[in-house]
Design goal:
Helix 1 crosses helix 2. Helices cover 59% and strands 0% of the residues. By secondary structure, the protein is mainly α. It has a domain of 47 residues. The protein starts with a helix and ends in a 30-residue tail after the last helix.
Length: 78
């Protein structure tokens, strides 16, 4: 039974040593591993809580529904 637990015990000891000797590397790996997990779990949770995305920003100017007047000269000339 001890042979089954031994790899996990050694991995735990290694991670514990890394947390003391180089915490920046250990925590950056932990945060990097959490990122993809959150990318797949957060959107369904947000939908269940009632989140609706906002309407997209218009990318074109709406054209008026009237005949267009031809432009003559400049509007600031009198």
């Amino acid at each position: 039974m001890a042979s089954i637990i031994s790899p996990f015990r050694n991995a735990y000891r290694y991670l514990q040593r890394q947390a003391h000797e180089s915490p920046v590397l250990l925590y950056s790996v932990v945060l990097g591993a959490i990122g993809p997990v959150l990318a797949f779990t957060v959107p369904p949770i947000r939908e269940q809580l009632g989140y609706r995305p906002t309407e997209p920003i218009p990318t074109t100017y709406p054209i008026p529904k009237r005949p267009r007047r031809p432009v003559q000269g400049y509007e600031d000339e009198e």
